[in-house]
Amino acid sequence: MESRFTHRFGTNYVPTDEEIEEIRADLLWRTEELARIDEQIRELHEQRDKLQAYIEPRKALISHPRRLPLDLLETIFLACLPTGRNAVMSAQEAPLLLCRICSAWRIAALSMPRLWASLHIPTEFIVAKPNIRRPAVEQWLTRAAASALHLSLCDMLTPWQEPMPSTDQVAALFESVAKFSPGWQNLECTWITDVTARALAGIHTPRLESFTFTAGELTYLSHFGQLLNSPRLRAVSLSSSELPFVPTLPIAWHQLTTLVVQCPRDGPSSSISLGDIISLLQKCPQLVSFQVTPTLNDFLFDYQSLSVTMSFLEEFFVVPPQLLFQGWYLACIIHCVSMPKLRRLHFPLVENVGSESDQFSLASVGEKYPLIEDLAMHSGPPNSPAPLNVLHSFPALTRLVVNACHIIPEENDAWGNIWESQRNLCGTARLIETLLDTTVCPRLQELEIMEARNLDKRILVTFLSARVQVESACQLRSLSISFQTA
């Protein structure tokens, strides 16, 4: 819409009285037209709102979630549960969150026993409001019906908590939990106290398959004799600073297929001796997986007389109490334990001292156990006891994890608790160059390198070309490299 005043727009021009009257006359009918259009828009909005109000509830009636079969809805609900830990009593997480969506979902969730089959029970949280939360725990576990239960009990209390919960409150809580012990399949105990241990003493757990004990006094497990001898118990994990007491525990060792015996990195006195390791393995002939924290100062020179054959052992993980491990000790373990089916081996950075015959040799491990598929190690310094040029000794290797950082203890460090970290600048490059030859670890599919530095991109491209484009069914499928710049 043109006007003879168009060229005046955006200027400081002041119209005359005649021009003002002309402009007002021109705007009059246009203003009326604008008001008419606004009224039409308002009426259309009203019509739209009425139509939307009619459509939305009817669309909801025919929505897909309403027509989901109960078994599919259960699968979706189960996928909403947290992974890596048990469910908690929080309205912000499943399953309680699912009960707040709508009445239909609440009814569905409450009718699904598997949705309530896991629960984390922190003592401090429950006994803060015992009259409300203890019955809630019982109600939760009741909803699980006959489902196998996965429970985690945590007794860790805040020292300055006021008032501290009474022993009667704690005992009452775990006595309530113990009522459901026939359904326990997995039990995790963290920082449990003697009160809790006594409350759980003598309980019947016919379905218990896995037991985990973390950060507590192992002597409390003397109350768990019946629990630790459950007929289905197959996996036990013990993490404590009292590992020397492990062999004396009343556990059905002969049934176990998985055993973890480890301690925090708080000194060598809390770990377990080679003699006790051999004793444990002799008690566990069915073991398939074994993870252990050996002692660092176990000068057991008559290890030649110790031996055990683990016919079913496929996984052997050595986790040291400190960052550096004596090579001769690892050599002793490898010498004393025969593992003909070994497929996964993880060991720390080792330092060889003493005579050559007592030193750890990665090449000899590969020759002794040709079935190893998964190997985790340190590349170490150039004179490392695990030189990368021995990888050809592992023809069946499909997964390799290498830490390119090596650790050197400071001088006059009597306790070995203070470490100076030095990165091996050539370790990563040596590894890549070694694996350029596809005859070395020909089945390699996964490679993970940690603490890498100064890796030339051209070497990496050459490596990928060699490993990915190789005409073989065992091409490299996964490469993960974490770099350390500091």
Summarize this entry quickly.
Helix content is about 30%, strand content about 20%. It is an alpha/beta fold and about 475 residues long. Among the domains are: about 65-115, no CATH class; about 375-485, no CATH class.
Can you describe what's shown?
This protein has 13 helices and 19 strands. By secondary structure, the chain is α/β, with parallel strands linked by helices. Strand 18, helix 13 and strand 19 form a beta-alpha-beta unit. The strands form 4 sheets. The chain has a 13-stranded parallel β-sheet. It has a two-stranded parallel ribbon with strand order 8-11. Among the domains are: 66-116, no CATH class; 373-486, no CATH class. This is F-box domain-containing protein. It comes from Favolaschia claudopus.
The average pLDDT score comes to 84
Low-confidence stretches: 408-426
**Proportion of beta-strand residues:** 15-25%
Task: Tell me the structural class.
Answer: alpha/beta
Spatial strand arrangement across the major sheet = 1-2-3-4-5-6-7-9-12-14-15-18-19
Number of strands: 19
Largest sheet: 13 strands, parallel
Organism: Favolaschia claudopus
Protein name: F-box domain-containing protein
